[in-house]
Amino acid sequence: MTSKQINSLLRSYADGTISKEDFDILISHFKLTGNDAEILAAMDDIWHSLNAYEFSAPEDVKKSIFKRLTQQTSGKNNLKIKQLKPWYRYAAAVLVVAAGAAIYLATQSPANQSIAKRYKNDVKPGFEQATLTLANGKVVNLSQANNQGTIQEHGVIIKKGADGTLLYHYKADPASSNTDTSHNTIKTPRGGQFQVVLSDGSHVWLNTASSLTFPVKFNEQNRTVKLTGEAYFEVAKNAKSPFLVITDKQQVKVLGTHFDINAYADEPVTKTTLLEGKVSVVTAQKSTTISPGEQAVFANGNVSVKTADLEEAMAWKNGLFLYNQQSLENIMRQVSRWYNVDVVYEDQDVRKQLFSGALSRFKNISEMLEVLETTGSVHFKIEGRRVTVMQ
């Protein structure tokens, strides 16, 4: 492929107008496999093609972009790019390079001052934080609780594990009734996430701005929890005691399985994605059973089943923002929750623009917004905890 052809493809990619066929051609040329030499060779091709526009990147800029690119392909910061589909993996790599080129180009123009001003109030990503409300109403800040402290409630010992996960360990207590209905609630704020292992051994990952209410210990008939927001469940198997997740619009019934439920109140649909086992999604109208690799979507009172994009559904748990032709409005809802910012649109037309790509959730918000800005069709301004979206 000639330098002129590469240049044309890169420009159409940066403009957001590249076709799937041309994107495949571009990726085939790069042949990125995570090997440093091949990454450097691909970067040299990019810089060389940009030279057709009299652009020359200094060595310090090349090193900076190379560092970011190798981090993307080596799995640092909880990134698992190598486990993604090839299209996503290469898209992530090209996004980083394209973003770096765009950022450097911006520094060579008067518009750079505008970008610096718009992004001067950067926002850090979310982290492990949550509160635990006990049965007696006491609220415990789990972010500040140390790993040595324990709480005992109704025959259950509650403590934090070495990795910060909250652990519920059932210990038989003659004074505790088998019909005890005491409940606890874990709540993550915007910009928080947390993990808990329930007294039956089920492991739950709670996404940002979510809550899980559950019995301190489960009874023998069923295991019922209530969810707002999003959580990924790895349910301990117990054929005699079904596990039931209740959300605002549906119930999900399982015996032992791995699945994700996205039930945010501000999302237009509720999604249940199954990775392992079998679940029944129960609404007021009917019960729908889904199999591994499927996703049940509840919208407008109806449930539909489709093939799931498991990597996209599980991206948040794997430390990623991952989008395949997602609207900017959908993306910014996730950005708002994770970075604890309010999003304001100066131009309503940009809400429906579609984007694809991948980026670590553990980057500052400016890096996320810079990548979106490389399309040239949208711009952002950060003011405290408010992000303004502009055409």
Automatic annotation (TrEMBL):
Domain of life: Bacteria
Residue span(s) of domain FecR protein: 185-279
Protein FecR C-terminal domain mapped to chain residues: 321-389
Gene3D superfamilies, per the entry: 2.60.120.1440, 3.55.50.30
Alphabetized Pfam families for the sequence: FecR, FecR_C
Transmembrane segments: 87-106
Classification via InterPro entries: FecR, FecR_C, Ferrdict_sens_TM
GO molecular function per UniProt: sigma factor antagonist activity
Keywords: Membrane, Transmembrane, Transmembrane helix
Protein name: DUF4974 domain-containing protein
Organism name: Mucilaginibacter aquatilis
Taxonomic lineage of the native organism: Bacteria, Pseudomonadati, Bacteroidota, Sphingobacteriia, Sphingobacteriales
